[in-house]
Amino acid sequence: MQLFRETLRFGYWTARILRQFLRVRPGSTLLTIASTAIARITRILAFFLPLKVILLAGSPGVPRYFPFVSPDAKTEWIVGLTVAAFIAYGLTLLLQSATERWSFDAGREILRGANQISLHGRQEEEARSVFARFSGVIASGLFIALSALLLTWLNPALLGFISVSVSLLYVFTAWALRGEAVPPPRLKGRIQKNLNAYLGLFSTLIFFGAFVVILAPFLLDRGGNILIALLSVLLTQQILGNLSSIAKTGTALQASRARIDPLVYPNVQLQPRGPKRATPAFQVVFAKDRRQRQSLAALARVEPIDGDINVCWEDSTFRGANTLHIVQHDRSGRPIRHYQQQIFSPAQFDLLENEAVLFQHVPRERLKAPRQYTSFEDAGFRCQIYAYGDATPLSKKKFRDVRDELLRHIWAYRPAQGLIRSYRGSRAMLHQRLTTKLCSRLNMVTDTPEEAEILDHWMAYLPEIRKIIQKQPLVLHNPDMNRNTVVRDGEDYLIMTWGRWVLEPLGAAMFLNGLYSKGSEFLETLRPLRPDFRKCDWAADLRIAALCGQLEQQILREQYKAALGTIKVIRSHHPSITESGSSRRAAC
Which of 32, 109, 517, 521 has its Cβ near the most Cβ atoms within 10 Å? Predict the structure, then answer.
């Protein structure tokens, strides 16, 4: 990144944007910029005037730094300055409110002038934000220029110190951000990742240095003026704050340029956005040659490599990660082993952490999870290399044949109490998620007396239903288990991801895995696997949890009429619960 070049590019872009704003809405643009700048001036007055009042009121006479106040008019000046402070504060609020209104109107007009077809659902709000942020940047620059002119008269030494300090900071930052290396050097990476903290730190250092400059006339007995000193402190704080605001806002605007230009210019089209992890850094880090070296080095640290390694891109078969297919060849070129490298961006680190918690309590092989050979971090991305069996996902027919056996194998594991405690500490179980508040969303769709009566009965007996669900055995459910994430491993199978595992009551898990239509028959095959399965009954309790799992999904998807239909099905199957209110003892 070349900071000098990027600064010039942003300045030129801002000038072009301002020209477009002035062409479409000249009045609103000028009013917004002017009112934003004036609001910052009145904000300073709203802080400065009360300080003058306190100094004047707290002195026995009239201090020498109030030469324009006569002793006879001291009280009138105190009252007048107090009123002026209130007016300044009120004017600040009024200007801020007017700026928001003008920004909304101008943003909408600019959007209409640039596009006849809607770009996305929040385009008007985004156009308002773009107009307000660009206007704010220009107003900040205008305010800084006016403040510098004032300091030229009030305290030129302070202005010189601030100018030199900010210039040195800019040069240092340009040096730190130089180059385009990926991954970036540590200092560059920290600045880019923590820009707010970086600017805040150096703004604070410059402010304290400026404070020493302001104090110098008093310390050196050169006749310092308290009012000028107080005003200098406020101006310094505002100048540094506005400079930081320009840097942060400019960085954010530049990063969103591909979305901003289509909102402003008629001849610029909106380009579709790729996934957030598909950044230029990602593309460089995992380019063919580099990923070949990185993956080979990572594997060689834990596994003897005899022969060649080929690292190929593989379209991921589950959400949240990118994947690479690593093939080890013998000396004759025959593939002898397959690995899968899973790549996670910071936004998806929770999947790795969830999986790690699961395998603290249960061995990986018990859940047919692949062996993990190694893990490493590269340019902020976490990578895991796993065994990959024969690297061929199952066909639809083959997966249908093996799915039930995989589920029986997984559900035969009875979750340890430690795992259940860890899960409940962070996630709600089905009986906790199926709340009165959730079900009350259906009130808005009860269009007939019959539907109202059905919902009333359901709400009355919801506590009883939740008790039935709570008593059911818990099983592990892997929502990512499908034919694309299951591969053959000799005579066995591997399930390549467990990052989204959840605990569900058996009945709900059967629904989530498409077993509702054969729930009774499938339960018979489960009974020998766990003692707590032997007490369960499909018709009496598991079916309730299955239907409640369906009900929850329908409500969350806003399929409210379908949810009422599910309640009717529950009521028809279990009249003892929804009508008499006396449920027989749940079998589980």
Answer: 32
Specify the CATH number for 396-578; select among 3.90.1200, 1.10.260, 1.10.3470, 3.40.50. Answer: 3.90.1200
pTM of the predicted model as reported, rounded to 2 decimal places: 0.72
| Per-position pLDDT tens, the chain of length 588 | 588 888 999 999 889 888 888 887 788 888 888 888 898 888 888 888 887 778 777 777 666 666 666 777 777 878 888 898 899 889 889 988 888 877 777 766 765 655 444 444 466 677 778 888 888 899 999 999 999 999 998 899 999 999 999 999 999 999 988 877 766 788 888 888 888 999 999 999 999 999 999 998 888 877 778 888 888 999 999 999 999 999 999 998 888 887 777 777 766 655 555 555 556 678 888 888 889 888 888 888 888 877 788 999 999 988 889 999 999 888 777 888 899 999 998 889 999 999 999 999 999 999 999 999 999 988 889 999 999 999 988 888 999 889 999 999 999 999 999 999 999 988 999 999 999 999 999 999 999 999 999 999 999 999 999 999 999 999 999 999 999 999 999 889 999 999 999 999 999 999 999 999 999 999 999 999 999 999 899 988 899 999 999 999 999 999 999 999 999 999 888 766 645 444 444 456
Q: Residue 296, Cβ neighbours under 10 Å: how many?
A: 17
In this structure, what DSSP letter does residue 267 have?
Answer: T
Strands, sheet with 381-387, edge to edge from the N-terminal-most edge strand: 308-314, 322-329, 335-344, 381-387, 372-378
| CATH of range 280-387; options 3.30.200, 1.10.3480, 1.25.40, 3.40.1710 | 3.30.200
- 117 token code pair: 């077809």
Q: How many residues does the chain have?
A: 588
d(CA 327, CA 337): 6
